[in-house]
Structure formats: C-alpha cells, structure tokens
Amino acid sequence: VSVPQSVQKNLWREHQVFLALSIVVGVAAGLAAVLFSVAIEFTSHRLFGLSPSALRLVAIPPLVSIATGVLLAKVFPDVRGSGVPQTEAAYHLAGGIIPAHVPLGKFITGVLCIGSGHSLGREGPSVQIGAGLASVAGRWLELSPERVRDLVPVGAAGALAAAFNTPVAAVLFALEEVIGDLNAALLGSAVVASVAAVVVERSILGNEPLFHLPPYQLVHPAELIAYAGLGIVGGVLSLAFCKGLLATRALFRRLPARTLMIQPAIGGLMIGIVLLYVPQVMGVGYEFVDRALNGGLLLKTLALLCFVKLAATIVSYASGNAGGIFAPSLYIGAMAGGAIGLLIHRIAPFPTADSGAYALVGMGALFAGIVRAPMTSVFMIFEITQDYQILVPLMVANLLSFVISKRYQPVAIYHALLQQDGVHLPTATEPTQIGRTAGQLMRRDVRFLAADLSVDDAWRLAKEDGAPAYLVGTAENLEGTITRRRLEASWAGGNREARVAALMDRDVVHAHPDHSLDVVLDRLVTSGGVLAVVSRANAAKVEGVVTADTLLPMGDHVSAQRRNVSDVGTSGSPHSPVRSTIERVRDGKEDPTGVPHLGGGQLAERSLDG
Amino acid sequence: MHDSSQSDPNLISQLIRRQGLQLAVLIGIVIAAFFATRALAANNRTMTLHDAAEWYRHGQDELAAGHVARAVDDFRRATVRNRMQRQYTLALAHALALNGDTEEARNALVALRNAAPEDRDVNLELARLAAATGDITAALRYYHNALYAPWPFDADETRRRVRIELIRLLIAANANDRAQSELFILSSDLPNDTAHHIEAARLFTDTGDQAHALEQYRRALQLDADNIDALVGAGQAAFQLGDYRLTQSYLQKVPKERTDIRPTGELVDLLLGSDPWAPRIGSAERRRRLVADFHDVEQRLEVCATARAGTSSPVDPGLLADARTFDQQLQSRPVVEQETIESAFDLIDRIERNVLRACSPPTTLDKALAIIASQHGGASK
After folding, report:
1. A12 touching B (Cβ < 8 Å)
2. pTM to 2 decimals?
3. Which among A21, A147, A296 is the nearest to B23, CB-wise?
4. I want to staple B74 with a disulfide (CB 3.0 to 4.6 A). Which of A13, A53, A285, B58 is the partner?
5. Cβ(A462)–Cβ(A487) under 8 Å?
6. What is the tens place of the pLDDT at every residue in A141-181?
7. Do B19 and A24 touch (CB under 8 A)?
C-alpha cells in the first residue's frame, strides 16, 4: 500500500516538531531543575540563616510542614513523596498525562519541605516537574497520545541531567527507571533533552562539578575485597532503608484519614528534634557528602550521620512530605563508604586508598541497592569522577548491593511505594508467550459480598451460587476475598453472626487486564478459585474476574498455543497440564491456603508483577 | 496527532502550522524563563558568596581565639559555598595543619596547586606543611616555587620574609650550607636599611659564618653608626673571628647600660692587656705581662692545691713543682725569649686544665689566658 506523499511529508514534519519540542522540553526541564535548586537554597537560607538557633531548628520543620500538609492534602494531593513513582505511573498507566497543577504543586511543596530541613532530595521532584512540564507542553501542542506519553521520560531526563549535572546517567535513568527498558526508542530524544538541559544548567550555574573529588586510584588489587565488603554493607543498608521506609509509611497510612493533613507536621516535629542534635542531616546534605568524599569527617561522625540520615529520610518521606530519596541514598552511601574506608585504612594489611574513594563507591552501592538502577548508578559515579579506574570497584560494589537488595526486597522501592497506594506498574520482563490477556478472558459480571454481611447470610448466598471464592466490597473498592471453604467452616463452627470483613483475606491475589494467560493461570491457582482483575492505576477497582469455568473451554487452545511458542511439554489431549490445572482449581482441589502474600500493601502482588 | 485528523492531510497541515506557532511561543517563554532564572541564580550566588565570606570571617575569629577545630568547620563551610576563593581553601589548609590533620591539609593544597602550579601562597602553605612534617626536601622545593613565582611589584618585603623563613628552617635542620646559599641571595638584595642588615647578620651568625655576619653589621653601622644592636653584633662577630682589638673598638662604643656584653668587654680588655705576644710592645712590657700572667695562674694553682689536699682528687704535685721551678727561672731572666713565652703558656695551659677540672670555674682572666694559649700553641693541644 503506497502512502500518499502529503501524509509522508506530514509525518516527517511531526517528527521534526517532536524533536524540536524535545529540545524545548529539555531546556524547560533544565531551567525548572535549576530554579527548584535555587529556590530550595534561598528558602533554607531565609528560614535558618547562617547558624540557626536551637529554637529555629526544632520549630521550623513542623511549622512549615503544617502549611505543606494543608497544600498536600487539599490542593496538590498527588505530589507527595519523590515524584519518580508518580512519573512512572503517569507514563505506564495514564498515557503520559500529568495535570498542569502537578509540576506547580511539586515545585511549591518540594521547596517548602526540603528548604525547611526535611531530609529529602531534590532530584525526584525535579524529575516529576520536568516530566510534568513535558506532558503539559505535549498536550498543549495537541500531539498524539503516544507522543505525549513519549515526552514524559524526555522531560524527566532533562530535569535529572540539570539537577545532578550528569547527562548520560540522566538518560539512562529515564530509560532504566521511568520506561523500564534500556532499548527504548526514545533514546535520541532523551539524549537531546538531557544535553539541552545540561547546557542550560551550566550556562546559569557554571561548569562547577557537584562534588569536588580528590584523584581516585585503586592502590592495591586486594582492595577489591574491601569494595566487595562495602557492596555487602551497601546492600544491607539499602534493605534497611527500603524495609524501614515501607513499614513506616504503612504505619502512617494506617492513621485515620483525618490526620492526613497533619502527618507531614508530625514528621516535621521529629525531624526538628533530630536537627537539634544532628543538624548535618538537614535538607539535601551535599555539603557533607562533599566532606565525606574529601576525607573531612571522623569515623564516628560518618557512622552517626549514616544512621541518622537513614532514619530521618524515612520519617520525612513516610510522613508524606514532598521530596526524593535520590540524594539521601547518595548521602547514606557516602557516609557508610567513608566509614568503611577509614576502618579498612586502619586494619588492612595492604595499602589502601583514602576514605573518600570508598565514600564515592558507597554512594553508587547505595543508589544501586535502593533505587535499583545499576547502570545509572555506575554511569552517574563515572560521570562525577570522570575516572575509568573507579569502574571495576564500583561495579563490584554495585552488583553485590543490587543482588542483596533484590533478593530480600524483590519489589523495587519506587514500585513498592506505588503498590502501597494501590498502583501496580507493568514490567518489561513479564512473559507474553500467549496472546490472550486477562482483560480479554475475564468475566465482567462480578458478584461481590458486602463486607458487613453476616456469615450466616453470606453462606446462604454461597450455597446457592456454588462459586469457590468471593470478592468482598464493591467494584470500586475491593476490600478482600473469602473462600467458600472458610465461610462454610465458620458457619459450621457456629460463628454465624460474625461479619465477612472479620474473616476475609485482605491480601488479594490479583491480575491486571494486560497480564498474559500465563500469569493469570499462575495466580488463579493461588487465588482460591476467583482471580480478581483490577486496574493498574487503582488496585481497589475491579474490572472483572477470571475463574476456572471462564478458562476451561480454552484449555486445549492454550496448550496448543504453548506448544507452538515454546518447547514446554504439553499436548492437546484433555489431560494436558493447563487443562488439568484449570480442572483442579474448578473442583477445589488446589488448596489456596499457604499462599505467599506480600505484606505491607492493601493488595498483594506476586513478585512477577511490577 | 489525533487519529481523527490523520485521514485529512489538510487538517494535519493546519495542525502542524499551529504547532509551529505554539513551538515559537514556547521557545519565547523558555528564553524569558532562562533570563529570569539566571537573574535569580545570580542573586542566590551572591547570597551564597556572602555566606561564604561570613563563614570565613567566623573561622578567622575562631582561629584567633584558639578554637582550631571550630575554625576548621567554619572554613569548610566557606570553601563549600565558594570554591573559587582560594583564600578560603588556604585558610582551611592552614587550620587543618594546625589541627594536626596534615594529610587533608596537603590534599586540599595539592588540589589548589594542580589548578595553579605557580601560586605562591599555595606553594608557601605546602612548604610550611612539609616543614612541619620534617620533609625538608619537599619544603625546599615548595619554598623555591613560592619564591620564584610571580610576585606583585610591591611584595619584595613579603618575599624576603619567605626567604628568611626558609633560611630559619634550614638552620633548624642543620643544613647550614644551604642556609648560607640562601643568605647570600638575601643579602645581595637587601634594602639600605639597618634592621635588614642586622637580621641578615644574625642569620649569618646562626649559620656560623661570622665573617659575613660582621660584614652585614658593618653595613648596618655605615647606615647608623650608633646602632647598639649592630655594635654589639659586630663586636661579638669580631670576637668570634679572633679580632679582639676590633671587638674592643665596637664594644667600647656600646653604652654601659648594656650589661649583657660587659663580660665580653672585660674579657677582651684582659686579653689585649695580658697577651705577651701582642705586637708593638717593648720587651720589658712583654716580660711584665708574662710574669703577671704566670703569677696569677700559679697562685690559683696554690689555692686549688691547698683546697684539694687530703681529698680523693688532689692537684698533681708534679705540676705544682713545675710551676715553682718555672717561676724561679722566670724571675732570673731579665728578658724573655719567644721560646720562654711559649713554654710559659704551655705550662699555663696545663695548669688551667687541672684547676678547671679540680676547683672553681674559670675567671675572666682564666678565659683570657686560655684564649691566648690556644692562639699561640695551646690551641694545637
């Protein structure tokens, strides 16, 4: 089919518009990042002055957090926290649409929170601001939905490049973290935006590196063992940070909804008390990272700052303030690395590098362990040092930290934070061997049990219906699931007046409409017989259910497809594994008890899910 | 672009034209935002630089008050806020060195030196740091870098101070030859000023080079003939050179209030009045001096022998007998020959050594006779 010349020309012009817009977005994101940084500095200076009194240190964080609490609860409810998870969610689930008030709200609340001393970073908010500006610009120009979506990582790359003065790492971050695919076709646009942003940033702030570093060198090959040790420590600290953050955030989330407005102030008060004793953890804290890199801190100071910063960041973030974890992860890494460097320097039987070199590698290790963007981490430190010699120790430490963190915290922190909010992102690694998706397979006529229904009434309904399990709640608010067996057991045990809410399982094994049949089958087995298919953007919103009866007619078709796709030993006979799985679930032979649930969230997700 | 418009090329063209216009508007907004951001950033930068200056001032105050650790902290804050101001880094390095953290101080200075290898202040601080750690070779190299770096035209005095600092370091390290080399350079370029010549002369004295010290004192006296310090210094240098008459001529001009040089003056007076070898004196005077000198020493020996009699370390009886015998011989000779004087002073030298070892410390006369003895034969012993 020949494409008309005019259409070809217009397509070409659309490409040109997109490229030009990528440059403009890069510049705008760079300017926003610079302005954000300048505004934080200015606010901090105005609020604390040169050497703040004890009263200021204690009072300013909670007082400012009262104001930001109101803003975050009433005006900008979607700008809490880092901004990176929200940007990822916007890219994957909202077609790249970020409302115009989001970058504005992020800017204002981010400046107030970080400027008032909260232990948070400026890079995450910069990413959301840059992505938001890109999205707004794309929609104003009435670009196609695909182009608007594509602009989000472009804006994010530009903002991060300007915020951290590392253009290559920023591009990698946009691809690795925001898109989740290093092979994304957006590489060119992201590079253009990143370069434009860095040019703008340098023309305004000068070509001053973020950190001043002494020359790095691997003094002795045996030092690699020490760096491996640092990687292990980095992994453990990353785990402590991620677990601590998720647990503390879950605690805050359990507080009554009416406290939402004052939660940032609660965090602010705690931070104020911390600042009274350890003011070094205030705000972004790059000044002290610089000191650690230059060997300017004592061992006990490094260790103290490492743990206090870790705790302070958890409190600041979990209490709902606006700010990122990018800078704190670097801070904690620098302190931990510096401390280990000093220890190694004292006890190692071989000559070692200065503690600053370890602090530098520690930054990368913590970043790799917490943010889980190992390539970004390596390139970021490499861009900071511009020294090839650091690559090997850095990769050793990063790899170990990454592996340990991933082993014990399978869901990356940004995704886990989203899951706490009921948002589940897809990942690029999800198998798609079979063409049918949960959305195509599910039944939309879903029967729910009300949470306040008595066991007696519920069992009466269940007896008539005969389904193996039920969803509890409504289509807009899935609260849990309950199996027929549990209802029956409770009814038989005389516990007939109890409410369903008291018996239901709140960790719902579920799938999303885009999940493949493989995933659906896998989860159906552990779901109790009724697998809820929920929205990615809101895991409490039920779009349908998949049951064994829904799938049974497909068993042979599925097996045939599987045979074509892979060499998995299946046959088209009625006794194929797929068919037998479905039959076992239908007949209630697959015992759903002992299903591994992922704690912490309202709705659990298997590790396969993002 | 929207799907609905993809089917109509005219609509797409219109849309793209509009997008071009919108892009132009966006570019305009971005340019305006660029200048606004730059102005705000510049304002912020001024604020930060002001903060840096404040921290630097705090640091100086803390340093002056002896709170070195606090000063280090303040200077660090200053340097983080303004990395371009090397004065802050220099102050930090200085404070770090005072705080005992020489390695970090050196790192900070080396980083500065890498950026500006010929920076005199950085080299100077590095030199001081190397000197403090006892690395004289490195110190010498950095001092030379500092000295031969470009200096402002009105900074001769500062540069001279640096060289003097280096000379003092070399003297303290017993590298007198190197110190003298530096002193020659220093003295070749001294201004016509008494104080400078006196300082150079004292440094020459410290290196043991009395001749050049005396020369510098003379230059000082040419500029100010009554300068007491110069007179004293010249007198002492001449004394060390063995030119007692010259010593006497300088010290006689020193006011009596300077009691510290009185022993030297008395010694020189005795030396010049007791020396039987002195030129342009008659044989009678030569004999008188020799007899008087010998008498004094013999008496001292007698007193000492009496005091030490019966103790575990008596004076050598043979020496006492030799002294009496020689005294009788001396009395019997109306004219003393050169040979007699030499024999007399050999004996005087032996007696002085014994008396010093067994009895009281030397008197001024003893010292004078010892010097005369050492000048004319005794020294060979």
Report:
1. no
2. 0.71
3. A21
4. B58
5. yes
6. 888 888 899 999 999 999 999 998 889 999 999 988 888 77
7. no
